[in-house]
Amino acid sequence: MASSTTVKIAEFRRLLSHAHSVLVLTGAGISAESGIPTFRGAGGLWRQFKATDLATQTAFARSPSLVWEFYHYRRELVRTKQPNKAHIALAKAEKRFEKEGKRFNVITQNVDGLHRRAGTKNLIEMHGNLFMVQCTLCQFIEENDSSPICESLRNRGSPDVNPPEIDEKDLPRCTKCKSLVRPHIVWFGEHIWDDVLEKIQKEIQLCDLFIVIGTSSVVYPAAGYASILAERNIPIAEVNIETTPSTSIATYHFHGPAAQIIPQLLSVNLNNE
Ligand code: OAD
Ligand code: ZN
């Protein structure tokens, strides 16, 4: 006899085969199986700090050295990790949809760049990217994936020790005006960039099937997309190892790790890779 999960997966696949504009929202949980700690789960602390205490303008103003050490640590960590089966399945599904002339877009709250590395093209990184920086003076935005990002950060960023502060002049600088740069990331208390919000708005309007993967659904505006779409009766599938505020409005809740469930949901065969 088919289990209820098998039935749900079959139902979801039927919806997917009829969808014309699939929208996927991902959070830290999709990268958990790549070995990147989530924000609110175990492993969410760096030194004595919660990530959410360091990802703020106040923390950066108080100690650019501390905040840069934290981001340097995360940049170097992500470099050693690989996209997992969930990221890869999404990239493959996008290709399949494109071939069929249908839309398939991913909005991610993650700054780890793993969707890009997996090959996803239609991607909105709504909170920015660890490998982009922005000048605190002239506002110039540029990619910077140097390792380390500057000499003074070499061998720094360890989560276990609290070394002396690095002088501001030795922290990462703008290639145009030589002023201090910051990670090009939306911090707590900051607004998502207008151009990004516009792109998201457009995708929400076009969406006829929504998939929410690995997010605790507590940080807005992303946490609100499911209810906006539920009001329009758009089918919603949630994939998570826990229940969240989105679970009660989702049409389907698939309970389990994304790397296992996403390839099945999207009918992507990754066995030969
Ligand atoms: P959270 O750490 O809040 O939530 C991660 C979610 O992933 C939780 O609901 C977990 O149950 C789930 N999860 C963990 N492992 C999983 C797995 N293998 N498969 C599926 N689900 C899994 O992370 P986000 O929701 O992404 O913002 O957090 C949202 C934002 O708050 C982040 O983008 C960040 C953060 O502070 C900024 O940095 C601006
Ligand atoms: Zn500058």
TrEMBL record:
| Positions annotated to bind Zn(2+) | 135, 138, 174, 177
Catalysed reactions listed for this entry: N(6)-malonyl-L-lysyl-[protein] + NAD(+) + H2O = 2''-O-malonyl-ADP-D-ribose + nicotinamide + L-lysyl-[protein]; N(6)-succinyl-L-lysyl-[protein] + NAD(+) + H2O = 2''-O-succinyl-ADP-D-ribose + nicotinamide + L-lysyl-[protein]; N(6)-glutaryl-L-lysyl-[protein] + NAD(+) + H2O = 2''-O-glutaryl-ADP-D-ribose + nicotinamide + L-lysyl-[protein]
Annotated ranges, domain Deacetylase sirtuin-type: 2-273
Q: Which InterPro entries does this UniProt record tie to the protein? A: DHS-like_NAD/FAD-binding_dom, NAD-dep_sirtuin_deacylases, Sirtuin, Sirtuin_cat_small_dom_sf, Sirtuin_class_III, Ssirtuin_cat_dom
Cofactor (UniProt): Zn(2+)
Domain of life, per UniProt, equals: Eukaryota
Q: Record-annotated residues binding substrate?
A: 71, 74
What's the Enzyme Commission number for this chain? 2.3.1.-
Where does the chain bind NAD(+)?
27-46, 109-112, 214-216, 240-242, 258
Q: Any idea where this protein resides?
A: Mitochondrion
One Pfam family in the UniProt entry: SIR2
Keyword list (alphabetical) reads:
Metal-binding, Mitochondrion, NAD, Transferase, Zinc
* GO MF entries: histone deacetylase activity, NAD-dependent; NAD+ binding; protein-malonyllysine demalonylase activity; protein-succinyllysine desuccinylase activity; zinc ion binding
According to the UniProt record, one GO cellular component term is: nucleus
The record's free-text note on cofactor binding: Binds 1 zinc ion per subunit.
Q: Where is the active site?
A: 127
Query: What this chain does, per the record?
Result: NAD-dependent lysine demalonylase, desuccinylase and deglutarylase that specifically removes malonyl, succinyl and glutaryl groups on target proteins. Has weak NAD-dependent protein deacetylase activity; however this activity may not be physiologically relevant in vivo.
User: What note about domains is in the entry?
Assistant: In contrast to class I sirtuins, class III sirtuins have only weak deacetylase activity. Difference in substrate specificity is probably due to a larger hydrophobic pocket with 2 residues (Tyr-71 and Arg-74) that bind to malonylated and succinylated substrates and define the specificity.
Q: Which NCBIfam families match?
A: PRK00481.1-3
Give the family per the record.
Answer: Belongs to the sirtuin family. Class III subfamily.
HAMAP family, per database record: Sirtuin_ClassIII
The protein's name in its UniProt record: NAD-dependent protein deacylase
Q: Which organism is it from?
A: Rotaria socialis
Organism ancestry: Eukaryota, Metazoa, Spiralia, Gnathifera, Rotifera
